[in-house]
């Protein structure tokens, strides 16, 4: 018996997009951590400062998640994801270009944390629309696989700890496949 389009299951394409979205959204915090040794020398970042910057990122995400969840409901999960990916890329470029002072880094990590606060409601809404009720725990658990994938991407950015697979180079290939397809 073949599955019909009205029969819910595991929305694989949406799940992959959600994993990618979470991974991209949390990447600024992990890349700052991966670059700690360079930042320590360049801008005088201490271990305490690194902890504070990481905390700023996740506090911004926690504070912004509820209000941005209402934004996702208003503008839709697709537009929210598009905004998130573009602005996350801009934040990463700004960190690389202008992150030579700790206050600039903190400001950009507040923006990045807010984007992470936008990513989860958008991904959750996308998955909740299509996932079968009995599969939602599995689907939402798999969505959070984006966080370890992002930490691996951050680690592969450090030339002293090169991983076998450079996740940063594989992400654009996945984006190129997933972006043009409607979910």
The fraction of residues in strands falls at: under 5%
Counted up, domains total 1
Q: Whole-Å distance between the termini? A: 24 Å
**Arithmetic mean pLDDT:** 80
Largest sheet: none
**CATH architecture tag:** Up-down Bundle
Radius of gyration: 17 Å
Structural class from helices and strands? mainly alpha
Q: Which CATH first-tier class would you pick?
A: Mainly Alpha
Question: What is the β-strand count?
Answer: 0
Order of helices and strands: HHHHHHHH
CATH topology: Growth Hormone, Chain: A
Cα shape: elongated
Q: Give the helix tally.
A: 8
Note the main attributes of this structure.
disordered C terminus, mainly alpha, 8 helices, 183 residues, Growth Hormone, Chain: A, elongated
Question: How do the helices and strands line up, and which of them pair or pack?
Answer:
Layout: H1 12-34, H2 36-43, H3 47-75, H4 77-98, H5 102-130, H6 136-143, H7 146-156, H8 167-178
Describe this structure in words.
- With 183 residues, the protein is mainly α.
- The chain has a single domain, classed as MFS general substrate transporter like domains (Growth Hormone, Chain: A).
- 78% of the residues lie in helices and 0% in strands.
- The protein has helices at residues 12-34, 36-43, 47-75, 77-98, 102-130, 136-143, 146-156, 167-178.
- Helix 1 (12-34) runs parallel beside helix 4, helix 1 packs parallel to helix 6 (136-143) and helix 3 crosses helix 5 (102-130).
- The two termini are 24 Å apart.
- Residues 1-7 and 160-183 have low confidence and may be disordered.
